[in-house]
Design a protein that fits this description.
With 218 residues, the chain is α+β, with helices and mostly antiparallel strands. It has one domain. Helix content is 31%, strand content 20%. The protein has 7 helices and 7 strands, in the order αβββααβαβαββαα. A 7-stranded antiparallel beta sheet has the order 5-1-2-3-4-7-6. Strand 1 and strand 2 form a beta hairpin. The longest helix is centred in the first third of the chain and has 14 residues. The protein is globular, with a radius of gyration of 17 Å.
Amino acid sequence: MISTRLILICWLALGCAGAMESPPPWTGAEATGSIFVVNYGWHTGIALRKADIAQSILPEVRDFPDAEFLEFGWGDWDYYQAADAGVGMALKAAFWSSRSVLHAIGFKGTVQEYFQGGEVVELALSEEGLEQLVLFLADTFERGGPGLPAPASPGLYVNSRFYPAKGKFHIFRNCNTWVAEALQSAGFPVNPSSAITARNVIEQAKRFNIGTNRTVTR
């Protein structure tokens, strides 16, 4: 997550970079499942059913034995975990980040009910797309060795955990571009380079929205 001031800097930089081309319409395989993009305002995350995540690929799911869904967010190590992050820490995250972190939330009920204060976009995808997304998520964890879960620390909530993560966080590769990369790995033709803001991620995702009143189940 980054501050309002940094968002304005991002928009100015994008304006100097020129217009982005829109990706082509999605023509993916027949949908057999669904995932969710969650908009917190400045920050986005991606949620999916725990039953769709193989423990052999993502062993960290064992940290959430009672969960029905898991929501993942990626960000700067210091800023994301800070109880009261200020502008100085936001600038450090944007330009001098030393490492990154994953935040995972385990919960029951529907995604729409759990994130009542945010915006939720549900996306249908194929079984192959879902498998590729899980592999993308699994590869973001910084683990001590093959098959070993990443070490967990307390998250922002009682039902969440922080994990060391791979990837260099900076102003042009932040929590929102990471979500766009996750969607791209699942086969959605989104443009991560233009997904610096949460609003852009949501607008791109909405093109594939199946609606809150219809859920594709496996």
